[in-house]
Amino acid sequence: MPTNDEIKSSWADEVELEGGALPPPTEVRENDFKILTEYKCGKDNKKTKIVRTYKIEKRIVSKSIALRKTWTKFGESVDDKPGPNPATTICGEDVYMQYITSKEEEYKVEEDGLEKLKGMGDKTVVKCRTCNGEHWTSKCPWKDTALASAKTADGEKKPGAPPAQLPAEVGKPATTSKYLPPNMRGDAASKRLDNTSMAGARRDDSMAVRVSNLSDSTTDADLEELVKPFGPINKLYLAKEKGTGSCKGFAYIHFKFRNDAAKAIATLHKHGYDHLILSVDWSKPQAHSNP
Amino acid sequence: MKPLILHGHERSITQIKYNREGDLLFSSSKDNKPNVWYSLNGERLGTFNGHQGVVWCIDIDWTTTKFLSGGGDNTLKIWDCETGKTIGTIYTNSSVRACNFSYSGNMAAFANDKALRQQCEIHIIDVRNVDESISQATPILKIPVSDSRVTSLLWGALDETLLTGHENGEIIQWDLQTGKKLNSTKEHDYIINDMQMSKDATMFITASKDHTAKLFDSDNLMLLKTYKTERPVNSAAISPIMEHVVLGGGQDAMDVTTTSTKIGKFDSRFFHLVFEEEFGRVKGHFGPIHSVAFHPDGKGYSSGGEDGYVRVHNFDQSYFEYGFDY
User: According to the record, where are the WD repeats (chain B) (predicted)?
Assistant: First the structure.
């Protein structure tokens, strides 16, 4: 490498700023800064002032590089002034390198959720509502048996149901998030068709129960767990925020039998659920109350 | 990091290269004017006007005095770096796909495409004293390539061998004394889009359409490492100071309109050289990346893409502090 040589040149870093004043382009040199001011007339006769601030830096480089810095511009750039031409050189927006930790760790994070909760205090943080075991209700080994079997899956198979959001839903089979037309659905849905005619189910509000004061994080699955013990359900509707998919705080449950519904109201009204006290009542027949 | 966006091309970038010291960055695109930029501030030094069509490949010699470009107009041009004037032009019978100066700078190699009644050929030419007469001069060596065409090309150690990457994924090492095949390996399934040497030239990295980049020993063509992605890899480079490689690629340009940018994976992807694991990504381009290059000092890198922009990045401190967990 040749000996180092000091040269002064227009090494510049471009910074764009905004300001406001009047016409011809000016170039001001202050200390180590070159300030270029330009005025432009936009399409709608709006005057815009463009202020570009360049920082002039001195760098000590090898002779060959210093020499190259003095080369005159050629080709399309022959008319360019010293320093970067804003037409060809743009200072981009900040970008950051996204660091990726190894893939195993990425998956671990989700799994760890449960472990963390356990580690936080006593071990009964997570309690299954079906069997009182130490796991999420959705991960209960009895989930698809006994209680669940016949009455399941209305809520889950709802076409609009969002993909898993809470850790509680992680364990579910992948098929639940995929839309299936009603005639292609599994036995649960077809059973429903057998038992009640669609026309009857649609308008019959007499067995509908309105649950309100639900917490934001309530999901279809949670709701189902909550009301399943009372009897067979025709339809579950949990009102959700369109964008976020979080619960709007109320839900409608259509029971198959009126006395089941009455039982549910009696039990669940003023029942504490997820630190909120539920309010459960018959669904009031409104013009378009049925969603 | 705040990248500098160099907007000197009207069409997609085909190749970018730094000169040896890294103060200049050369770029070529499917428009007909290769550009040269000061890499520090993104100032354009000039354009090399003279080609009639796509410029596929470029190279700069060791002393940054001569610049080589080969294109779809069936010519290979040798330029004076300082003035941007053509010194010599070699006319071929098909488009020039790959070109490289030898390490010594005394010779250059280029390969032209297979075309109608024109076989793929590798030419070795003497570039010590270039003038107009070079178009008539007979090449030092002409190697006809019968099977798959050459898509990328590198000089081996001491300018005694030549490494070529082929359309069928094969890599061939040629002996330049005899013009015979010395060694070959076929680790890739599809076209090899790019090959780049490590700083000490003991290894080279290949980028292939088969969604992988592979690291080879440049002496015996032994496969050392494989970097897997989900999209075709168009270019790969090895960091001169860290044990990192950068891969540029993404979907084929023809499929871009049918997929969103999110799943197009147009990021520059950084892999650990040894562990073959991806550790970082940099976003920016709106289309596939066609060429990546590390700054010779390893403190930055550039990428050129289908969108016609060259993005010059200087790494943040966090990049140098980033420790790979193992």
Answer: 6-47, 48-89, 143-184, 282-312
Beta-strand relationship, B278-282 and A4-17: unpaired
> Would you call A94 and B1 a contact, using CB atoms and an 8 Å cutoff?
yes
Which residue, among A7, A58, A69, A74, would best test binding to B if mutated, counting the most B CBs under 10 Å from its CB? A74
- Taking contacts as CB-CB distances below 8 angstroms, the residues of chain B near A75 are 33, 35, 46-49, 84
Q: Does A1 touch chain B (CB under 8 A)?
A: no
For the domain spanning A150-282, the CATH number is: 3.30.70.330
Residues of A in contact with B41 (CB under 8 A): 11-14, 83-84, 89
Query: B276 has which bridge partners?
Result: none
Which of B33, B44, B295 to substitute to test the interface with A, most A CBs within 10 Å? B44
Residue B159 lies in a domain: yes
Per the domain annotation, does B46 fall within a domain? yes
**What single DSSP character describes residue A145?**
S
Residues of A in contact with B32 (CB under 8 A): none
Nearest partner of B93 among B73, B70, B77, B78, judged by Cα = B73
Per-domain residue ranges for chain A? 4-77, 150-282
- Complex ipTM > 0.90: no
Write the pLDDT tens digit of every residue in B251-304. Answer: 776 666 666 555 556 889 999 999 998 888 898 888 889 999 999 999 999 999
CA distances from B244 to A22, A275, B2, B270 (A): 51, 51, 21, 7
Residue in B with minimal Cα distance to A84 = B43
Q: How far apart are CA A271 and CA A278, in angstroms?
A: 5
- Contact status, residue B232 vs residue B264, Cβ threshold 8 Å: no
Distances (CA, A) of B170 to B100, B165, B185: 19, 6, 6
Residue B326 counted as domain residue:
no
Convert the pLDDT of each residue in A204-261 to its tens digit: 677 888 888 888 888 888 888 888 888 888 888 888 887 777 888 889 888 888 888 8
